[in-house]
Amino acid sequence: MILSKSDCPQVFGTGLIALDLVMSADSGAPVQAWAGGTCGNVLSILALLGWDVYPIARLNDEGASERIRADMKRWGVHLQFADCGPTTDAPIIIQHILRTKDGSPKHKFSWTCPHCGSWLPGFKPVTTKSVEHVVEHMSHAKAFFMDRLSRSALVLAQRASENGAVVVFEPSAKSDEKLLSEALKIAHIVKYSDDRFGAMPGAMDQDSATVLEIQTLGEAGLRYRHRRGRSPQWKHLKAVTAPLVVDTCGSGDWCTAGLISKIAANGQEGLRKCGVAELTEALQFGQRLSAWNVAFEGARGAMYAIGRGELRKHLNRLALGPSELVPRISKNKTSTAAIVSCPACPSKFESLSGRI
Questions:
Q1: Which pLDDT does position 324 carry in this prediction?
Q2: Under the phi-then-psi rule, with left for phi > 0, alpha for psi from -120 to 50, and beta for the rest, what region is 66?
């Protein structure tokens, strides 16, 4: 298998790549079906930012998997390794966008079919055997992303690291302690939210690979520490003020992708040479992307609400600084609706009907 030849940096990733069914706070709006999950979002955003992206997953030929493929392909994602065997149903996540009594936005997720009540397909990691052929093609990768730990994810991360790639680990939930310990000995960047992890013990231990540890703090911004000297000190970055808040889902994914795009393009060598000013600017770029995206519904709603040409202009402005955050939303919102079947349900439900 020959990978695409390009001057763009390569990133591989594995983890939660799901179909997001986004139900608008506007009851009359159609339900949107977009590729999602932390890994799916980060990789799709990196493709938008100019990277050559290779997700490693188990997508089959059913409706949800096909919807994910079509969406990621639209943004230039390479899908050679998206159907590692044995293939299986893609995870499906329903995001409900709601409003509180004072009009503030909030969202919740559900993982059950609204018709039959059965659990929708969940995450299943790629198998160790199935990724043996993938590692042979990772020699030029500059970054590797993972969010769900498994033996296969660690095999891939280890090989990527040996090839000089920056390994980025964003734990989404409590993990097996043994796998977590191994991950911290491989990952160069560890990023997590304070509402899920109060701390990440071992991230900056002497035997860990972690160069940069980031803890996001919601409206309070984030704090980070960089391995310089024997006792890395936490530094705080306040949040970037969003001009309009419609939906906060996906904010962390934009921050992660922005950070990777700025400091991982030259692999581990570039990361270790990164100075404090450069690192701070990379984190702030990620924060600006997050503050901009919350003006749109869905984890990557900005990518669908704005035409491609205008989208590029927005990203260029955001790369320069926070003064150009006004979203200027296009009225020509692109619909990516599709028919998706619940594997346990005797009848199909329509993601375009708005009546899931």
A1: 52
A2: alpha
Contact 115, 128 (CB under 8 A): no
| Pairing relationship of beta strands 52-56 and 212-216 according to DSSP bridges | unpaired
Of 143-147, 233-237, 245-249, 305-309, least confident by mean pLDDT is 305-309
Identify the band that residue 317 occupies on the pLDDT scale cut at 50, 70 and 90.
Answer: confident
Phi (first) and psi of residue 22, to 5 degrees: -100, 115
Task: Tokens 């730990």: give the residue.
Answer: 149
Tokens, residue 83: 């159907």
**What's the half-sphere exposure (Cβ side, CA atoms, 13 Å) at 352?**
8
**E strand map for 86-129:** 92-99, 105-110
Distance CA 288, CA 135 (A): 34
CA angle 239–233–43, rounded 5-degree value: 50
**Residue pair 74/68 in contact by the 8 Å Cβ criterion:** no
Q: Is the pLDDT of residue 79 over 50?
A: yes
**Domain at 10-350: CATH code:** 3.40.1190.20
CA distance 16 to 38: 6
- Is the pTM here over 0.90, yes or no? yes
Phi, psi of 152 (to 5 degrees): -65, -40
Residue ranges per domain, the chain?
A: 10-350
Q: What would the mean pLDDT of 215-244 be, rounded to a whole number?
A: 89
Strand, helix or coil for residue 354: coil
Q: In what order do the strands lie in the sheet with 32-36?
A: 32-36, 18-23, 92-99, 105-110
- Write down the H helix ranges in the chain: 38-48, 63-74, 151-162, 177-184, 251-263, 267-273, 276-293, 302-305, 308-320
Q: Report helix, strand or coil for 336.
A: coil
